[in-house]
Amino acid sequence: MKKILVATDGSQKSKHAMEEAASLAKALDAEITVLSVSQDTQFYIGDQTFGSGHMFVIQEDIEKAVKQILKKASEFFSEKGLEVKTVLGKGYPADVICETAEDGDFDLVVMGSRGLGSIKGFILGSVSSRVAHHCKKSVLIVK
To answer: pLDDT band at 111, cuts 50/70/90?
Structure first.
């Protein structure tokens, strides 16, 4: 195993995943790439009936936050004595993670679990669950 992709959203669960990835990378002398995904988010304010509402896209703010997440992840691995590459993906997180893992020929995807309950997870779906079921590469979900 030489290439590990770490998917992070900046959450505490993601930090646990980064800790596990750092241990694996050191033990296996593997290369780490950290991926965080900026998803287009739009919301509507106003009354659609009369056409007086406004659609807002907050993409710029989301990308700024994702860049900060990547910066902190890079600092985390640097403190562990590991060099990393960072990637800012755009789109639906699970799909971008799977595509990046396959296109980059990664050996392993490491990510945190969201810890959703069974009903809530079924209704909402979760990124980690979707990646585990759809990614063609090995996936390690860290709790």
So the answer is: very high
Residues 83, 33: Cα–Cα separation, whole Å: 9
pTM: 0.84
CA dist 78 → 14, 27, 48, 136, 141 (Å): 16, 16, 49, 29, 22
Helical axes 59-79 vs 12-28, angle rounded to 10°: 40
The total of structural domains in the chain comes to 1
% the chain with pLDDT above 70? 79
* Mean pLDDT, the chain, whole residue set: 86
C-beta separation of 61 from 118 below 8 A: no
Assign residue 54 the CATH number of its domain: 3.40.50.620
For 19, the domain range is 3-142
